[in-house]
């Protein structure tokens, strides 16, 4: 009788604390439960919040809760995690009395670190992913390479100073910070649209779908590194 190999969970939990921000985070790239070493405080918060709040959603396959202190950032990360198929909880207490920079940047760096840790080896995954996502009149394209070479080109063409409490200049910087922490190559372009909320949200949704494709497991390629070099760790 053939044995059945159960794949290791692709999940991570971490805390990132500096003089500027205090972040707790748990991520499961395939949805479902959070890792056993997840901070009890955020697990309790998930239980208490359930599906209430502007960036909280629980379904049979995913649990999502974002509390960064910046509503529009929560909204973008909610869209990212929902359409990438992740379970994700993030809490952050940052120096918002100064401005939004440290909170937005550090949250996305921490999310990138967690993504990289959760993914582990690139063996057996598609590696590349690309997607288009529309939101009404806006259309964005995202292209991802799980490359271990952090690089990003982000062109969103945002015109407003702020969307909610998030500076428009920070939105591409958030994507750049995620790519840095995740050690991926990332290109995101908003191709058209006149509403900045729509432009930004379509970009995050396109990224979500591209990441889901890039991290998907390829049947028959189990254990194989998708690189002519034979490694993506050097």
Automatic annotation (TrEMBL):
Ordered alphabetically, the record's keywords are: Amino-acid biosynthesis, Histidine biosynthesis, Lyase
Which SUPFAM superfamilies does this one have?
Ribosomal protein S5 domain 2-like (SSF54211)
Residue ranges of the TM segments: none
Q: Does the keyword Nuclease apply?
A: no
Which reaction equation describes what this protein catalyses? D-erythro-1-(imidazol-4-yl)glycerol 3-phosphate = 3-(imidazol-4-yl)-2-oxopropyl phosphate + H2O
Is the keyword Glycoprotein in the record? no
What GO annotations for molecular function exist for this entry? imidazoleglycerol-phosphate dehydratase activity
Where does this protein act, in terms of pathway? Amino-acid biosynthesis; L-histidine biosynthesis; L-histidine from 5-phospho-alpha-D-ribose 1-diphosphate: step 6/9
For this protein, the Enzyme Commission number is 4.2.1.19
InterPro entries, from UniProt? IGPD_sf, ImidazoleglycerolP_deHydtase, ImidazoleglycerP_deHydtase_CS, Ribosomal_Su5_D2-typ_SF
Q: Which family does it belong to?
A: Belongs to the imidazoleglycerol-phosphate dehydratase family.
Q: What is this protein called?
A: Imidazoleglycerol-phosphate dehydratase
């Amino acid at each position: 009788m053939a044995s059945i190999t159960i794949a290791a969970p692709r999940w991570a939990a971490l805390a990132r604390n500096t003089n500027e921000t205090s972040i707790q985070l748990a991520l499961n790239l395939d949805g479902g439960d959070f890792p056993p070493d997840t901070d009890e405080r955020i697990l309790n918060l998930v239980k208490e919040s359930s599906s209430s709040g502007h960036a909280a959603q629980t379904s049979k396959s995913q649990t999502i809760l974002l509390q960064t202190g910046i509503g529009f950032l929560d909204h973008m990360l909610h869209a990212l995690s929902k359409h990438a198929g992740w379970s994700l909880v993030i809490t952050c207490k940052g120096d918002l009395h100064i401005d939004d920079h440290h909170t937005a940047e550090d949250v996305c760096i921490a999310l990138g670190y967690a993504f990289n840790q959760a993914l582990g080896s690139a063996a057996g995954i598609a590696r590349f992913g690309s997607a288009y996502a529309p939101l009404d009149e806006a259309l964005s394209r995202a292209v991802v390479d799980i490359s271990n070479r952090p690089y990003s080109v982000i062109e969103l063409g945002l015109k407003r100073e702020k969307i909610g409490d998030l500076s428009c200049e920070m939105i591409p910087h958030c994507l750049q910070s995620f790519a840095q922490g995740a050690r991926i190559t990332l290109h995101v372009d908003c191709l058209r649209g006149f509403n900045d909320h729509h432009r930004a949200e379509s970009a995050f949704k396109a990224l979500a779908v591209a990441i889901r494709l890039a991290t998907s497991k390829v049947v028959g390629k189990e254990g194989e590194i998708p690189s002519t070099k034979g490694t993506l760790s050097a």
